[in-house]
Protein 1
Amino acid sequence: MSDRYVVSGGARLVGEVAVWGAKNSVLKLMAAALLAEGRTVLTNAPRIADVPLMADVLRGLGASVEISGDTVTIDTPAEPDYHADFDAVKQFRASVCVLGPLMARRRRAVVALPGGDAIGSRPLDMHQAGLRALGAHSEIEHGCVVAAAESLHGAEVILDFPSVGATENILMAAVLADGVTTIENAAREPEIVDLCLMLTEMGARIDGAGSPTLTVTGVDGLHPTTHHVVGDRIVAGTWGVAAAMTQGDITVKGIDPEHLRLVLKKLEGAGARVERFDDGFRVVQDSRPTAVNTATLPFPGYPTDLQPMAIGLATVSDGLSVVTENVFEARFRFVEELVRLGADARTDGHHAVIRGVERLSSAPVWSSDIRAGVGLVLAGLVADGDTEVHDIEHIDRGYPNFEEQLRSLGGTIARITG
Ligand code: UD1
């Protein structure tokens, strides 16, 4: 049996919360620590389940890792092991990001492929094509990505799609390659910019961070650094949407509002008043939200990780909303759970069409991934009665102190163990 939440509907969320570093950044920064022998320190790390899992992956490669509060210290040996085996990586997908650093340091890598994911297929063809362009062989053998190179040389890489993971792996392989690599159609997410920042602090030469073209001039070696992880825009955006859904008033600190430009614009479109600060924002919603259309796209588009929240908002908005998913095809599975809560929603291919109702009605529901799980909790907040959200270990993987933060805003939530 896994844990579940019981969420009581009806509260208007009011107050202030702070976000920690981004899950989708810290895991890659931990992998990047493999690029330099010695002690790398990451501060502002979120206390989420994926951080100790990534620590285990790095330990399996010979690093020592200490997690103390929001500080992660990684001591990388002169010669890390190159084999991340199935036991280490099976629990979560982000472990694939050790591929690039291992190629850079060891010129070879064997990284077991994690199992399927509930949000859609996640192939590695672009990661492999990039490594091949840099001079490596890369195949899938016996459930592992196996890559090796005599030497890595700079190359021109053009991605078919601005994949976050492929951009990161190719970038981390290229920083220690001979010569200049350009990555075109590169991902532009703030977490990529954060990785470029840390790599530059370590001595890498990278131009174009945050633009569609990254130019990397290989260097002979990198040195460890101390780095502050960029704030989690997905957690921050979740609280912004929660304010709009519950007709509340939430201030979020620890985030650059530029990282949520489109999300905050959409909330304004739904009728919210949004104030932006240097290190956060405030969302105030005084009346029932109005329907807005949303289409997920790579940054600076609407993040796919906030798509469940956009649908949650649509379920109680006045009017008809169309939400289009362009990144992960299976992300609509959770819409069926929302229908159990009384949502008037249907999906057709990449589109979900939602006619808002005044209020949802409580029911037991099941989370299929991190973001869908939180989307269901938000839906529970606007349902009559108590909603049971099952399989909440997904939420533990990405939302630090979730229950405490929700309670501090006036939400009623209880965790039932087992
Ligand atoms: C990362 C994030 C995830 C987020 C996603 C998109 C982490 C740990 N996860 O995932 O939360 O939702 O970015 O912002 O950072 N693709 C291929 N071939 C490849 C690589 C990707 O076809 O070689 C496809 C995927 O199937 C998907 C799309 O490209 O349809 C985007 O994937 P990608 O940007 O790579 O996402 P992740 O890095 O896996």
Protein 2
Amino acid sequence: MGKGDPVRNSLLRKFQEVFGRPAAWWVQAPGRVNLIGEHTDYNDGFVFPAAIDRYIQMAVAPRDGREIRAYSADFGEMSTFPLEDPPHVATASWSNYLRGVAVQFRRRGIPMKGMDVALSGTVPVGAGLSSSAALEVATAEALRVVAGVELDRVETALLCQAAEREFVGVQCGIMDQFVSVLAEPGTALFIDCRDLSYRTVPLADGVSLVVCDSKVQRKLESSAYNQRRRECEEATAALRRVLPDIRALRDITTEQLETYRSLLSDVLYRRARHVVTENERVLRAVELLGRGNLEAFGSLLYASHMSLRQDYEVSCRELDVLVELAGRVSGTLGARMTGAGFGGCTVNLVRDTAVEEFRTAVTEGYREATGMDCAVYVCRPSGGVLSERL
Ligand code: NG1
């Protein structure tokens, strides 16, 4: 976010060019990658994401009147809409994320003022790195600073999640918006998805978070995702007959699952086993990272991948290839698929000294095995949303 940042300088120039005056505020919100805790959020479980140093950035200034004029430098497109009841734009437009956040401000009675915004992003779009959450969080921060109001940080994340669910129409969990607001530099963020308690855990120096995009479109994703959610509910319902107090798979221990295994079909048992063991892995991962034990932390990433692959059955050949290639590089501490699965990305913990070797080995190996090119993003754990008066 420093003054020498070329993205920042070019966006500030763009603002001046488009709106004919200088910006008054600078806002940036990060994308994220989930280190461990997959398919746990909708089971009231634990997740452990980190914000990454890829951002949605905004140059902002207040304007008279009850309108937002937003210019996307990436799309070369202007979108103007009223603060009160902005209509939904039919096409899947970046502008809907801004509109959705304005709707939530209004609904919650948070004061708003008109503003001009020029925005651009370094979060790869469609790569599973949550550019949409970053866009929502940046918008909320821009609206907040322009109106000069205080907003609780957890409330901000919830408001942005509501914007995505209600206006954009994606039934997302809270993780993405939460980490984009609350992350702190150099750390990962442990989140309990039931009560939204959280804590930061420092990520040791000398390691990078490397994201590999398989470039496999997640075609099966939504039907299979919904099916997995249903299976978790069915498993919970079956176990509730003998454990009446449980509300979600979060409330089951491995011992209980083994004891009552006969109540579940093989598929439901394996789905439940993934969720139960994944929650345990997250808790251990948080503890191990806290103690700086990167090797043991990394093995949990591999274990998570195996569980997602065999028990939850949401991996695919290309993701398995990426994880296997990563594991052959000696400086890789851990690797696994991240996100819903059936394509998308892997997350890898790689020693800084091995990053170039990793890039070459994985890119070439992937091309050889699949005939496709993957994208490799080397990331650092970043802080959450920031704003600066210019
Ligand atoms: P991705 O694939 O990152 O969008 C999806 C869900 C998450 C979570 C993960 C699996 C949406 C919008 N997001 O994440 O809430 O359930 O799968 O851990 O559906």
